[in-house]
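Researcher: Predict the fold of Zn-dependent hydrolase.
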Amino acid sequence: MQKEKQFLLQEKLLEDYNDTYDYEGVSGKRLASRLDALAQIGLTNDNGSNRPGFSKEEKAARELVSGWMREAGLSVREDGAGNIIGRLAGKNNELPAIMSGSHVDSVPNGGHFDGTLGVLSALEVVEAWKQSGYQPKKPFEVVVFTDEEGSRFNGGLNGSEAMIGKGDLQAKLELIDKDGMSFAEVLQDVELSVDSYKSAKRNPDELDIFVEVHIEQGKRLEKENLPCGIVTGIAGPCWLEFTIKGEAGHAGNTPMDDRQDALVAASEFIFEINKLPRQISETAVATVGKQLVEPNGVNVIPGQVKFYVDIRDIHRETRDEVVNRVLALGERIAEEHHVEVEYAEKMRVEPVPIDEETQHILEQSLEEKGIKPHKLPSGAGHDAMIIGEKLPIAMLFVRSKAGISHNPAEWSDLNDCVQVVHVLKDFLEKLQ
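Model: Structure tokens for Zn-dependent hydrolase follow.
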């Protein structure tokens, strides 16, 4: 039984909206109405979003946006991966297109701004141009990437990967979701196929730059009291799996000076890892978020600990320096605690720095809209990270209340959202 509409997002967004931001064809009410309409698709009992990638709910959201694109005068097509592309012809339609957008799928019981705001911001720029009669010199494309979050198979960005021909398709075909459906079956469920997915690869020469608006999912802009900011780069993660092998023993009968306690060694290791990024780069981070202890008994000295380190930075050199320091630290811990330390590298993704000149143009757009330019890195992955492997990218973050995301409490004020639309519009016009 479908949930009755109870969550009136539009009303909540408009409560404190300053309509002086409605100028040059940009409409806060229209943006709020569309955020609300998407929120009703896959609305959960907690008033969150549940639109998994390649689901009926995600498809319904993409179809809704497709209709708005057509009403705005865009020619609309769906590629073989389910990505929606709405195209506005340029004065010189032979030039490579500028592309902007994001995604409309969500994590289970997620929020209503992650992804959707980026799609609707790009579409709102088209609406504003339509009202003023402006036609860009270069073609402009609004894109909705499918399955960014990856909640079906614990690995997302499938739409953007298909567009640039990235990813191991054979590995995807071996994936099974929680309902026992394979990747191929999930595609078929939304009228796609493995062959169509492969056909989505696009010639990068057709595109000039990709611009993504996204909520920050952090607290930096809130602390600076700014509506939006300039992303300097998207961090590339490196995941290391460490196994520390000591010797299990009786907690009561083994003296403290005769132990090889794997958990004590791991504890010092983790504590020291936390100090390393700040010694190397102001944008580097390292996190130990998963740990397994064996035998895991109250009265047993831990004989083995396995834990995972997630190391990220927007610069490859400093990210890799943190990795090397962590590995060296592991050798020291092994020697000092008389334990074995083994490691395996599980993943290493290239960071995507954003061009300084692109950032400078964004600074100009922010200043012209009366907003102090503030630069910040993105620690999370986005479609822009994938597209950035083939094309120049730009990215704007919008302030997130309390930094909350992937949660029904996710919130970005409409005044901030509309201001970023104006910045995006000005930036896109500067790129002509």
